[in-house]
Write a structure and sequence with these properties.
12 helices, disordered C terminus, mainly alpha
């Protein structure tokens, strides 16, 4: 009697195929564990030498921002050292002007900004507890109280660090000085780095690593410059809208908008949320809705006009991937992790794209399709002959030489 039912033949697992599948799964699992172990060791080493890596990262980001000016001067016949010196001095002047004109007033108003955010959260809580929502759940109240307490504690710890954190200030100055010197040397000797790297690496690494390094630098530069440009436009337009509406703390909110632009998606949401909360506390619900409309309008202009104009802003990363890597970077390394998450993900995408290029068959090796109506179980054969336009002419003789 057929226990599988009438008309259904009894089947069993193929032992050879099962063992092959298990061996393949075990091999893939072992390879994945090796890759994860290598990633963990790399992160551990980076954590141990982060005090030396962080100035290098800052210098590299500043170099990508200032390299176009240096390249312009070098193409006009300036000596590399003179061009790098001029750009470095210009950067120092601009940075000093920003500190004097913007950073100092923003720092003096940072306490009011944090207080306004806390008051805005409290007002949202009161609004949610009333009609039409009537949220009376104690867990929601406790969650809001916890969020407010954490924000207040963070503000207090920041203020304490600003007063007593002499070591932090010293470390910040040392990092800034090292990054400035490294930026000068990168601007001066940057074009000679890839030839030097090619001479130091053996075999195929001498070909692959310089190509990946050049593509990564181009991608990183495109990200930094485009985000700075778009962030500046957002800060100007949103700050102008806040000033017209009459919202206080316009300058800190504009600076927050500019800085948040370097954290895609999450940064814009955070800066807009803070601006709406400040408007709600200081001016009321109507002005808060107007500010929300201004922010949405500016974000729409950014996505539909500014972004197509600044074509280099595209990193080839899906918005969901960007959101995930920002959250992951923030959980691993706080604010620094959020700022560096997208550039690191873009560089990883560049490396992966190059690996795919090297592992993909050349375009000339195309699969030949079987004739219509022809059924066969044999796999398709690869075409190794050149395309018709590159083949030798039928009249004999050598093929025509390509035009230069």
């Amino acid at each position: 009697m057929n226990i599988y039912g009438a008309g259904m033949p009894a089947t069993g697992l193929n032992g050879a195929k099962t063992r092959s599948a298990l061996r393949t799964s075990a091999l893939l699992s072992l390879q994945a564990l090796v890759v994860l172990l290598f990633a963990w060791v790399l992160l551990w080493v980076l954590g141990k030498v982060w005090s030396a890596i962080w100035p290098l990262v800052v210098a590299l980001l500043l170099t990508t921002l200032t390299w176009p000016v240096t390249r312009f001067l070098r193409r006009r016949g300036w000596h590399p050292a003179l061009a790098a010196s001029a750009v470095t001095v210009l950067f120092l002047l601009v940075a000093s002007g920003i500190v004097v004109l913007i950073a100092v007033p923003v720092a003096s108003q940072s306490g009011d900004l944090a207080t306004g955010v806390v008051d805005g959260i409290q007002k949202l809580r009161e609004w949610a507890a009333g009609p039409p929502l009537n949220f009376g759940d104690d867990q929601i109240s406790k969650a809001l109280d916890t969020a407010v307490a954490r924000l207040q504690g963070s503000v207090g710890s920041i203020a304490t660090a600003a007063v007593t954190g002499v070591g932090t200030v010293v470390n910040g100055l040392v990092t800034a000085i090292l990054a400035l010197f490294l930026m000068f040397f990168f601007l001066k000797d940057g074009p000679r780095f890839l030839p030097w790297l090619t001479r130091q690496l053996p075999g195929r690494l001498a070909v692959h690593v310089p190509v990946v390094a050049e593509r990564s630098f181009d991608t990183l530069g495109a990200f930094v410059r485009s985000q700075a440009f778009v962030g500046l436009l957002d800060a100007v337009f949103i700050g102008l809208g806040l000033w017209i509406v009459g919202v206080p703390l316009v300058l800190p909110l504009a600076v927050l908008t500019f800085v948040s632009a370097f954290v895609p998606i999450v940064g814009a949401l955070f800066a807009g949320f803070v601006a709406v909360l400040i408007a709600l506390v200081s001016n009321g619900l109507t002005d808060a809705l107007i500010v929300l409309a201004i922010i949405i309008a500016v974000q729409q202009l950014e996505g539909n006009i500014f972004q197509p104009i600044v074509q280099s802003r595209g990193l080839g990363l899906h918005a969901g991937v960007v959101l995930l890597v920002v959250v992951l970077g923030g959980n691993l390394a706080g604010i620094v992790g959020s700022l560096l998450a997208v550039p690191v993900a873009a560089i990883v995408a560049v490396v992966w794209a190059y690996i795919r290029e090297r592992l993909t068959d050349p375009p000339s090796e195309q699969l030949t399709d079987p004739p219509p109506g022809h059924l066969t179980d044999s796999p398709p054969q690869r075409r190794t002959d050149p395309p018709p336009d590159l083949a030798a002419p039928t009249g004999g003789g050598p093929p025509p030489e390509p035009a230069l």
